[in-house]
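ok new one. same drill as before - structure tokens go in, u give me an amino acid for every spot. 388 of them this time. try not to just spam alanines like last time pls lmao
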């Protein structure tokens, strides 16, 4: 559910200022050199997050780089020429608002067609912490200088990281999505399980759902061979579920599938991806794909059996995956944005993920806004007539 309230941003001065950095651009044809620099910077300043990592960026470029025009922005210390920040700037492909096509720019690995999108979440910049404000200022200035585009976007960024952009461009249109999750801190402190931490109504529902299945078992697929096997079965379950309701499913896109296959080959050996498979009597009822970031499990994708929906396979699989993550020593389980009702019930915390847009003045946007106002007025008028 989209939240319409606006996040509160802390006002702060960027230290050091943008004058301490020089901004350079590299074309997409320089991918090899740019990724090498990306890797070296990440190794020097540390791993900040998955979507800004060199591995994620390379996998995304291999899957979408020939489709989505892009450039690399590099920020160097003006005095020492030391690289302090790097990011992708991508040109959106096939994007529309209503029936009208729009030309978009995106900060980070985004901009692919909506039907094939990886829907980046917890997006952020790879930048030395002391230079984050300065780099953000230069990025905003760069975006504002690009002609021929209707808007620029910062997709799927946490509120805390959006604050730096908001400081340099306050006229942002924000779509805020809550990401629900479960913090294991209390369960660890009390040496209890996740179930004991739920509210009584949720605890009863989970117990009933579990009791409806016989001989449940849970597998943590962390080796490469185990992960490949779990991924392939998850794709089958995911596709079967969506095609049964007339939808194509995420893995109908060859690019989307190739992106995740490459990430799997990179992240699983590094302990940054795992799969949890739940079986009942030897039959798989569901599999979840988890990214592991800073000791948090991020639930990215899943596949459930559609054989018996009445026994709540989604609730059972999500709950048992949470318990398994607690056993694995992780600190939290994050359902990411666009949560379902049962995921909200399984949560004890939430954070905001934001899709931010800076629109340029365009007649097409004026026309769209007027059309929406007219549509809403006609709808309200019809409702009043029906009530009278």
């Amino acid at each position: 559910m989209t939240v319409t309230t606006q996040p509160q941003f802390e006002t702060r001065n960027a230290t050091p200022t943008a004058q301490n950095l020089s901004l350079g651009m590299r074309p997409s044809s320089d991918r090899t050199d740019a990724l090498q620099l990306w890797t070296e910077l990440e190794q020097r300043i540390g791993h900040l997050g998955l979507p800004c990592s060199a591995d994620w960026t390379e996998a995304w470029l291999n899957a979408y780089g020939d489709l989505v025009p892009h450039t690399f922005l590099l920020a160097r210390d003006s005095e020492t020429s030391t690289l302090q920040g790097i990011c992708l700037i991508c040109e959106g492909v096939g994007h529309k608002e209503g029936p009208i096509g729009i030309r978009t720019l995106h900060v980070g690995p985004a901009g692919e067609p909506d039907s094939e999108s990886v829907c980046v979440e917890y997006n952020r910049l790879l930048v030395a912490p002391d230079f984050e404000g300065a780099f953000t200022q230069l990025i905003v200035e760069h975006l504002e200088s690009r002609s021929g585009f209707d808007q620029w976007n910062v997709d799927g960024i946490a509120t805390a990281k959006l604050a730096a952009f908001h400081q340099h461009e306050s006229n942002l249109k924000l779509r805020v999505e809550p990401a629900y999750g479960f913090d294991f801190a209390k369960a660890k402190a009390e040496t209890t399980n996740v179930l004991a931490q739920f509210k009584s109504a949720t605890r009863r529902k989970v117990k009933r759902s579990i009791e409806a299945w016989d001989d449940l078992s849970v597998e943590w697929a962390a080796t490469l061979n185990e992960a490949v096997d779990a991924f392939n079965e998850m794709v089958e379950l995911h596709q079967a579920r969506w095609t049964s309701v007339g939808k194509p499913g995420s893995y109908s896109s060859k690019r989307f599938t190739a992106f995740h296959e490459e990430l799997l080959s990179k992240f699983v050996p590094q302990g940054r991806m795992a799969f949890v498979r739940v079986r009942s009597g030897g039959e798989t009822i569901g599999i979840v794909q988890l990214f592991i970031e800073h000791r948090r499990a991020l639930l990215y994708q899943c596949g459930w059996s559609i054989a018996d929906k009445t026994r709540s396979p989604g609730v059972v699989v999500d709950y048992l995956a949470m318990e398994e993550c607690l056993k694995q020593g992780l600190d939290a389980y994050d359902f990411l944005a666009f949560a379902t009702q049962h995921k909200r019930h399984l949560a004890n915390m939430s954070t905001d993920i934001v899709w931010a847009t800076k629109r340029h003045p365009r007649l097409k946007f004026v026309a769209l806004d007027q059309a929406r106002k007219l549509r809403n007025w006609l709808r309200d008028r019809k409702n009043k007539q029906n009530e009278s």
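The chain has a mean pLDDT of 91. and btw The first helix runs from residue 31 to 45.
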